[in-house]
Amino acid sequence: MANNREVDSFSGVETTGHEWDGIKELNNPLPRWWLYILYASIIWSVGYWIAMPAWPMVSSYTQGMLGWSQRSNVMAEVEAIKKSREPIKAKLLQASLEEIEATPDLFTFALASGEAAFGDNCAPCHGSGAQGAVGYPNLNDDEWLWGGALSDIEYTITHGIRNENFDSRYSEMPAFLQVGTVDRKELSDLTDYVLLISDQEPSSEAAAARGQGLYVTHCESCHAADGTGDREQGAPSLVDQIWLYGSDRESIQSTIANARNSTMPQWGERLDPSTIKALAVYVHALGGGE
Amino acid sequence: MDKSYGHPIDILDVEAVNRKDKRSFFKKREPIYPKRVNGTFRWIKWAVMAITLGIYYILPWVRWDRGEGAPNQAVLVDFANSRFYFFFIELWPQEVYYITGLLILAAIGLFLVTALAGRVWCGYTCPQTVWTDLFVWVERAVEGNRNERIRLDKQPWSLSKASKKIFKHIIWLIIAIATGGAWIFYFADAPVLAQQLFNLEAPFTAYVFIGIFAFTTYSLGGLMREQVCIYMCPWPRIQSAMIDDESLAVTYRFDRGEPRAAHKKGASWDGRGDCIDCKQCVAACPMGIDIRDGLQLECIQCALCIDACDDVMAKVDRPLGLIGYDNDLAIQYRQEGKTMPFRPVRLRTVAYSIILAVVGSIMLYGLITRPLVGLNVLKDRNPTYVALSDGGVRNGYEVKILNKLREEKQYFISIEGLPGTTLSAVSLPISGQGEVMVNVPGDDLRAIKVFVTLPAEHRPSGQTPIVFKVSDIKGEITATKESVFSGGRQ
User: Fold this and answer.
1) Are residues A242 and B380, on separate chains, in Cβ contact within 8 Å?
2) Which of B24, B383, B389 is facing A237, going by the closest CB pair?
3) Is the pTM here over 0.80, yes or no?
4) In contact, B478 and B465? CB cutoff 8 Å
């Protein structure tokens, strides 16, 4: 329809011939810079299809000439970070636990990696803040069954408690009622005595006094004459205010009757030595360490 | 075009490119060929260009000794270590509000000079003006003055035309690359980066930013020029609100110039204006306007028309200043036979000056009294408190101490507000007064785990406010931070 060309008199631009309520649309071309960018984008996208993973196939996708993939990038980054940490990890392995705490950069690194390892491995039992739970010790406080020095903590983490490892911390509280060492009456008296020495209210002075004799016979060898416990055997103090299984009469009675012998895995077989060192430093730095 | 009527002046046959009645949305850009002028304002502009570009290019190379371990570059934006250095000032990331203050000062300063003398920023110091001026100067040097450039553009393509054009663009690109190149030196140690750039070892971002700035300088300063000021820049719109009747502006004194007409040498000047309609002012204008049409949005007040006109006035032996810094109100006064004194002290300028002084004083006060030690205390929330075997209770806190001094410093941490507390910290000594003693390296932050323990007899129920305090050994540099102590359930 070349003969139907119509030029707008005001702007001198050809119109499209379409009319809406007396208004005609000018047939201006797209700006050239815009057009060039469109062409450049088309060329770019073709190159991109060839170079990069692009087309979904039935069971896979086109891999692209550059072999780029997000997974390999991540793996490379993880490797790079591992590599960048190698020197300080080597230093961590060489230094003693005390040296680590005294060296600011090693200490900072140990705390950070210890915290991460704690979250991955220890938090399910001990809680994300190491605050513990019934049966799982609070690692922030100052009561340590097996000792709270750096080396004690490292040993406990490495070998665990009451597991199949020969080196693991081991002790066994007898189930006094179950094995018949004490009868129910004696159990009650013994409980009263424990309540007395732990600064709680026994049911009667007489019962507690009866219990004292039983304590000397059955308990003293592990929990000591004054009830302060024995770390060599992992025997808890009975005179402080921290109770792993509860300090009320019911809990104490149940402990004497049925015993409590919980376990902890040996982490030495799952974690590398530098991680265990970092964990020991982290746990020690939680505030309860000795 | 040789219509000089006996005067040694070219009477030009030109029309302003950007006239209001010629303005059309459908029109393509018409090129503007600003003519070379000489005169006072042209020299001021050269001087301003030399100073501003000089500052821009030289500043990153100025050294400033800050001692061991600190960069010795006077002006440096150190993103990697999150510091900003400006001569004796060193800003930490939490102090970026000083930049806000600086921007406020710049804005109010711009308001003030605009109220006094119109768009002097646009005319003399705006980077767009400075670089465009530089690019036009290069163009003039390669392709010649106005008429030669017009002729060249009308010529069909030839080897000599192409080589001139290519040569011009190459120089433009070099300037543009140098512009981007200078920018990156503000963000890294200049001598080191310069060496890396030439050995092609510099960080990729350095090249990217050179590219971005080279592109913007070349396209905005070289290719788009006046279009940036007219269509892209928001300042003219904002600045028009800062101008009042008494602000100075580049003004054609029509009371003196009109009626305008060509003038024959020796003819009488009686009954006519001083404007001989030579259109030199139009040819000189880089914005393509005719100043004789009055104040208009396109005018950046570069005053080149003043120089062009003064040149002509001197040749026809009339007083200078047919175009000058003036305003329409003053012209109106003169026409009524009165004189309007220029009053730089007006409510508007006084108000701007007061704001300027207040903001400046606040910033100066802040800068002088800014603490040399920063303290942050984060209370442990997991667990919120730890019950101890003797019935006492302990809370853990992460105490962060920022030492803004250059040298390592020993600080003493203590707490107030709770009697009977004992402080402890992992692997840190405790002073005889029970304070935690900690060394913080110069210009660094150290996070310390501090434990606050209360024995059973002092154990509070619920939350008690406490205050952490750090001080140096003389007790001169101190900082405090409030926190709470949780006694927990009992």
Assistant:
1) no
2) B389
3) no
4) no
Q: Which helix (DSSP H) or strand (DSSP E) does residue A217 occupy? A: helix A205-218
pLDDT at residue number B41: 95
Interface size between A and B, measured as CB pairs under 8 A: 60
Q: How open is the CA angle B482-B488-B490, to the nearest 5 degrees?
A: 145
Rounded distance between C-alpha atoms, residue B221 and residue B214, angstroms = 10
Give how far B447 is from chain A: nearest CA, Å: 9
Distance from CA of B393 to the nearest CA of A (A): 9
Q: Which tens digit of pLDDT belongs to each residue from B420-476?
A: 899 999 878 899 889 999 999 888 888 899 999 999 888 888 899 999 999 998 888
Q: What mean pLDDT value characterizes chain B?
A: 90
Determine the 3-state secondary structure of B14 from DSSP: coil
Which has more confidence, B261 or A118? Answer: A118
Residue A140 sits at φ, ψ, to 5 deg, of -85, -20
Partners of residue B24 in chain A, C-beta under 8 Å: 11
Q: Are A117 and A275 in contact (CB under 8 A)?
A: yes
Q: Do A107 and B427 touch (CB under 8 A)?
A: yes
Interchain CB distance below 8 Å, A138 and B391: no
Which of these, B38, B220, B3, lies nearest to B140 by C-alpha position? B38
Q: Helix A273-285 and helix A150-159: axis angle, to 10°? A: 130
- Per the structure block, which two tokens stand in for A245? 């299984």
Contact between B214 and B207 (Cβ < 8 Å): no
At residue B26, the pLDDT reads 65
B24: distance to nearest CA of chain A, Å?
Answer: 9
Determine the Cα–Cα distance for residues B116 and A182; give it in Å rounded to an integer. 103
pLDDT in tens, B143-153: 999 999 999 99
